[in-house]
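Please check our next protein.
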Amino acid sequence: MLEEVAKDLNPMVRGIINYYHKFRKSDMREVWWQLNNRLLKWVKWEKGLYKKASVNYLKAKYKERPILFLHWQLVCP
């Protein structure tokens, strides 16, 4: 299920990286942080987990596939 979200989200993230990230790297950290928070909330809702379990789930996915989401190459969850 997370793979489907990544498939839908990655083209938009790629566009943001190509357009904005080249010129505003320091400002974009906030955007990636917010995106990770939204992913965390989605995992909490989808899996019915508490916050700590959701964080552990996303970190495990990151260790398993660090290129699943394009912005994970810039900031880890």
User: Anything to note?
Assistant: The chain has one domain: 2-73. The chain has a mean pLDDT of 92.
